């Protein structure tokens, strides 16, 4: 039996899936994509919708998603400036995966023990 990973004519799906996972990895990326799959959001709306995310981290995650072609950013020449974030056509291709995850959670989510509440960023040092 031939090992698919050593066959030069075939794609190494393990490596390809590692690339896909890397694209979506990050503590907040899937949650951001989930929200943007629902509708266009402004930065402040995303920050309020994701408990525990800092402004810095949201900015970093959005920049990475934009660089990877999963999120588009539109800046409007207004005062104050308005910036909208929306999911791209490429990211909309994840829709069936998100639907499958929703169905899985509806079936098995109640069996997952609840986590402790997520803190709102870093705590100030005492003293």
Overview of the molecule:
This protein is mainly alpha-helical and 127 residues long. Strands 1-3-2 form a 3-stranded antiparallel β-sheet. It has a domain at 23-105: Winged helix-like DNA-binding domain superfamily/Winged helix DNA-binding domain (Arc Repressor Mutant, subunit A, Orthogonal Bundle). A hairpin with a 5-residue loop joins β2 and β3. It contains 6 helices and 3 strands. The longest helix has 14 residues, at 95-108. The chain has helices at residues 13-24, 29-38, 43-49, 55-67, 89-92, 95-108; strands spanning 41-42, 71-76, 82-87. It starts with 12 loop residues before the first helix and ends in a 19-residue tail after the last helix.
Summary keywords:
127 residues; mainly alpha; Arc Repressor Mutant, subunit A; three-stranded antiparallel sheet; 6 helices; globular
Q: What is the gist of this entry?
A:
This protein has a domain at 23-105: Arc Repressor Mutant, subunit A (Orthogonal Bundle), CATH 1.10.10.10. Helices cover 47% and strands 11% of the residues.
């Amino acid at each position: 039996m031939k090992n698919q990973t050593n066959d030069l004519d075939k794609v190494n799906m393990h490596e390809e899936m590692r690339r896909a996972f890397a694209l979506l990895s990050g503590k907040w990326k899937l949650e951001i994509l989930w929200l943007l799959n629902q509708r266009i959001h402004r930065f402040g709306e995303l920050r309020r919708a994701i408990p525990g995310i800092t402004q810095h981290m949201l900015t970093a995650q959005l920049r990475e998603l934009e660089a990877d072609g999963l999120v588009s950013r539109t800046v409007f020449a207004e005062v104050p400036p308005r910036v909208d974030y929306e999911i791209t056509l490429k990211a909309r291709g994840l829709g069936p995966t998100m639907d499958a995850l929703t169905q899985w959670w509806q079936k098995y989510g109640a069996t997952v023990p609840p986590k402790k509440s997520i803190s709102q960023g870093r705590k100030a040092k005492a003293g």
